[in-house]
Amino acid sequence: MAKCHRNNIGSLVLDQHNHRRTANGGHFRIWNSFSSSSFRRKVLDAVSCGGTRHNHHDHDDFKITSTETITAPNTPKETQPEQKQKQRVLKPQAKANGKSEKLSDLLNLAETEIDVQTKKKEEALEEMKRVVKELQVEDLTTREMAATNVRLLAKEDLEIRGTLAMLGAIPPLVGMLDLENVHSQIAALYALLNLGIGNDENKAAIVKAGAVHKMLKLIESSTTENSSVSEAIVANFLGLSALDSNKPIIGSSGAIQFLVRTLQNLDYRSSPQAMQDALRALYNLSIFPINVSFILETNLVPFLMKTLGDMEVSERILSILSNLVSTAEGRKAISVVPDAFPILVDILSWTDSPGCQEKATYILMVMAHKAYGDRQAMIEAGIVSSLLELTLLGTTLAQRRASRILEFLRVDKGKQVTDSYGGNLGTNMSAPICGSSSMNSKGGAKECLEDEDMMSAEKKAVKQLVQQSLQSNMRRIVKRANLPQDFNPSDHFKSLTTSSTSKSLPF
User: Fold this and answer.
1) What is d(CA 381, CA 345) in angstroms, rounded to the nearest whole number?
2) DSSP helix/strand/coil, 396
């Protein structure tokens, strides 16, 4: 908008050819055709901004001259700021255009990368289709190469394993186990192994296709002279047994006997890796209770108890025994092994293996809870001192289990001491006969009082002997643990010797 200046009316030039002085004032008279209202409007237009510029044509004989100039709206002073403002507007537009170009480049690059990845996936899918087709041809060399390619493709990619299974790779691979060519069998076994890793659907499909029975048939055939076939079969049993639905099928098929033979290495052909895989597969199968009976049909329990000294496999062996001890047949199989309880009690002192301590205490706790004879065998094996030591130095779980075993053994140890103290009076301790009708009332009452006094004295003796035994064991524990001689665990012993009527296992 143009700048307005104040206008000063300098003079009015009037055409005075037809004027005359008035008689009274001598003033000029304006033409009749120019009214006072028109004059007032002209003056106002001249004073206002830019008003005189577009109204000069109304009356040719009326002219206004001004001492100051009215600035026009299109002067250079006004166009300069407008140009700067336009420049400021153009700069953000240029930046926006630059950013849009970069964004467009990034989008194009992303689309290019997506296209490349899509093309690679399409090529990989075509490659997998080709490999699956080659598994079904008659040429043995082509099938063996295809099985090797399946093994390599499914080695590291979980998605490819599922895709190969959907394309139908599992049935022809299982069918290759019937071939007499050892190399083809090994290639098919390891291809099946990689297909089942981390994929439960593939594990179930492999068993459903009959792989378990075909692998057992391979074991019985002459081709098992090659140890590589046995190792591949053991590895497959390990992978397939991880699925719960496969456990009863594998356990009832006769695979447990093969795994036990591999673990025991009776033919001296099992590699260390195969023995480790067999032990882990047996642990998987022992989780299912029905398989316990199949395991007990072998001599696995005595072998495991004999191998418990090996620290590399002891924790896994104890895990298998923990599963077996859940059944009555399993507890019996463990208890009849010579020196079973001394072996288990000795594990309680393995302070460098807390896991073994916890599993050993679980086995002993279950057996002590279920069988009175096992408690006596544990006491004879010297379990009390080991349990007391474990309640002080073991893990939290081991301490709780050891305390529970002590509760089971406390009453039995008291009975044992009482029997040795009272001799043939032990039968009268539990249920003294008082007030018999064949006796007089005074004599009967007197005999009852004597029996009660005798029982009270025996209970005091038992209690004293138990306390002496606990104190003696505590002194040995303090000495072994290098604790201060003035260490007083009386409060802890009070919690251990508290009577409990609960017969359930909290762990």
Assistant:
1) 7
2) helix
